[in-house]
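Protocol check, entry for the methods section draft. Step 1: assemble the input record (protein sequence plus ligand SMILES). Step 2: submit for complex structure prediction. Step 3: store the structure tokens unaltered in the notebook. Ligand used here: MTE. Step 1 record:
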Amino acid sequence: MNVVSRGFHGRGRDGDVKLPPGQYLEHGFPVLQAGPTPPVNTATWTFTITTETGDSTRWDWKQFTALPAEDITTDIHCVTQWSKLGTNWRGVSLDTLLSDIETNAGYVMARSYGGYTTNVPLPDLRDGKAWIAYSYDGKPLHPEHGGPARLLVPHLYFWKSAKWVTGLDLMLRDKRGFWEQLGYNDYGDPWREQRYQGD
Ligand SMILES: Nc1nc2c(c(=O)[nH]1)N[C@H]1C(S)=C(S)[C@@H](COP(=O)(O)O)O[C@H]1N2
Ligand SMILES: [Mo]
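Step 3, stored output:
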């Protein structure tokens, strides 16, 4: 399945680029992260979804990469004001990963190798809006960009797309992740310019 959002929200009628407010067009692929790139080995990698009742579902690399995957072409928007259009990814839809999981949770804390966390409402991970991506431009996702696998939630500012993701904790009540505790927005919609708490 191909999910194509470039040209849908990203461009104006006459073909000019329409970016979210306050963003500029970036043609490179900047690396942004709060600390060093953690060593993550696919031999020991696991991805775990834990519900609010403590039930957990875990995949190792072999199981994870055997799941149905999708190609995604999408624009991405970093809160430091760069946007990159038409990026190409391959990954497993959160719809696939969540399909057999029973939950009443409304929120998710994504957890990464290295300790990074970020909070996202659960509905924002459903209905074809989010993936665990493991490939970029047809190649395995580079460690600097979150490889072996990262969360990809392109309709929110890119800090929500946790690199080196290892788990999602489903929560009944919202909690703040790493950047959110430091003043960044709990939701982070680039089109509404929700950069900081209170925006
Ligand atoms: N684990 C982890 N994920 C992270 C970050 C981080 O510091 N650690 N930074 C976030 C921020 S602020 C951005 S803009 C993107 C940058 O992704 P990139 O380095 O692939 O461009 O990753 C997000 N995911
Ligand atoms: Mo960012």
